[in-house]
Amino acid sequence: MADPKEPEKGGVELGTPNAAPPTGTMSTRRLRSEDYNDYSSTDVTPEGSPPDGMNGFAHPESYQRFGETNGTTWYQTLIHLLKGNIGTGLLGLPLAVKNAGILLGPLSLLVMGVVAVHCMGILVKCAHHFCNRFQKQFVDYGGAVMYGLEATPSAWLRTHAIWGRRMVGLFLIITQLGFCCVYFVFLADNLRQVVSAANGTTNDCSSNRTVVMTPTMDSRLYMLSILPFVVLLTFIQNLKVLSVFSMLANVAMLVSLVVIYQYIVRDIPDPRDLPLAAAWKTYPLFFGTAIFAFEGIGVVLPLENKMKKPRQFPVILYVGMTIVTILYISLSVLGYLRFGADIQASITLNLPNCWLYHAVKLLFSVGIFFTYAVQFYVPAEIIIPPLVARVSERWGWVVNLLLRVALVCVTCVLAILIPRLDLVISLVGSVSSSALALIFPPLLEIATYYAEGIHPLVLAKDIAISLFGFVGFVVGTYEALVELAAPATTIVNATSVAVQ
User: Fold this and answer.
1) How far, in Å, CA of 308 to CA of 288, rounded?
2) How many other CB atoms are there within 10 angstroms of residue 220's CB atom?
């Protein structure tokens, strides 16, 4: 086992050196210090930080967490937690419930929500265990997995423990950049619908009338037109500045959700025609979309690490995820009840063509636009600092910005290649979100505590959760790829023909 007091080497590193750079220089150390990397730092020891007590996930006698004097407050942390979980996945859940059934869908969402939050708790508990064992201030997701493998009885796993960190880093990159791809598709679809219906838009949101759609450019061209603005947004590297944009995004989405709710609760048709459980073949698509929506585990440790009073984090996590779960279940059920078989990949695409609901689409799009920067922060933090460290201090900031431009362009290109919102969400959820949210945390708990003795029921529970995640990973990925490979079919937006 590597000496825990030595810097971790050989893997993807989220941390920073403790030494401060010379004033006035844009060195690689500076790029990896201050607010740029505090979001997911693992090795920084805040100086002059008073003790703030124990975190609720650890035993009181086992771990004392020191907060950062300039860290985020409980309110800022709750904002980031909500923003990290509420996005396009929420708007795609009504279609997910259609793929599962009006009864099986919400029940499955509840179970997946409980399991996902439980896995978040496992991750935090294991991270605290290693912080106490190795006397470290912070341990990130990848570091926890690496230390967990080093704690196993298997010599082979101990020898290759660094690959645990690298694997987590890879899946974090795939997941977060996958979110960013989804955002491009969402923004393009909603902007295209607003523009194409502009000439037929009315102030009367209740009348039934035919709307003639104006021909407009392809959604892929909308993605390209959005690209420069997204690039500029990702140049913001300060977490406190991002928290302002995160707040604006939350306000925009909150207002949009209120308007969406007041529309879908009216004139709900008779639900007896809706199937209680859908065909088994579409359930994997539900799994991918649902786990995509619940995959917020990548931001759990960074948010806890950055808190001024980290002992408040357990309450924030449970309160925040309870709010998220209630939103998910209520919007998914009401949306499917309201639109039935006509529900689309995003419920905003089912809204009528009047100025009020076009404003909702634009407002939610603004929220998603700002969310891009928050989700982009994690993969940028993993990829950019090691590459910037390879160049001279003079060119460090240039390489930093060029890498940001390249990463944003990659997400845009991938979105252009797969412009189907529902399948992109399901594929990203099945491939990477299931691994981070369901497969890795239970295995980490087994690896962490197996040598010390783990209760058979806990062992059985962890194996069951990991197997559930693995089956969803395989079957969900297969079904999403099959759908992508199938000949494209023309999907007519019901709200494009008649305002409901």
Assistant:
1) 35
2) 17
